[in-house]
């Protein structure tokens, strides 16, 4: 898998990938009422591409993995006692890290996490933060194996899910 910055002319392919992943995740028990779709939104994807914050994993010219890393987070992040006390522009927030199910079990999600850490370090960031829905234990374990520490569990109502849910917050100090 090659990991690289996404390009503007790939918007439709990236949206197709993320919409397919919403359908896939909608089948999981931890998401109430199934697939709501819409995460990340097209506006978020466009902004991430424009700002060089969206990374894709490709194999044989097929986008089969992606993540966004920027400085945007739900306002509940401001209420938490993080290990790193740094301004928002010195902390990266990891969003929508996904790997197509046909490529699961090959270590691609781990490679994306490694890439995100390397990228944040190159950009002089002090930490990476993320949230992960309660009940989705596989990524929880993976993030911890890369030095992310559990910080707190908070309730967030993301538009794509539609109802408040508990999310575990993680941080990796760089």
Report what the structure shows.
The mean pLDDT is 90. 30% of the residues are buried. Strands 1-2-3-4-5-7-6 form a seven-stranded mixed β-sheet, with helices on both faces. It is 28% helix and 30% strand. The protein is of the alpha+beta class and 174 residues long.
Set out the fold topology.
Blueprint: E1 2-5, H1 11-25, H2 42-50, E2 54-59, E3 62-70, E4 91-99, H3 108-122, E5 127-133, H4 137-145, E6 149-156, E7 165-173
Parallel strand pairs: 4-5
Antiparallel strand pairs: 1-2, 2-3, 3-4, 5-7, 6-7
What is the overall pLDDT average? 90
Query: How are the strands of the biggest sheet laid out side by side?
Result: 1-2-3-4-5-7-6
Strand content: 25-35%
What assembly state would you assign to the polypeptide chains in this entry? single chain
Q: What is the β-strand count?
A: 7
Overall outline: globular
Query: Low-confidence parts lasting 5 or more residues at pLDDT below 50?
Result: none
Summarize the helix and strand pattern as letters. Answer: EHHEEEHEHEE
Q: Output the number of helix runs.
A: 4
Cα radius of gyration in angstroms = 15 Å
Gap between N and C termini: 25 Å
Major sheet, described briefly?
7 strands, mixed
Helix proportion range = 25-40%
Structural class: alpha+beta
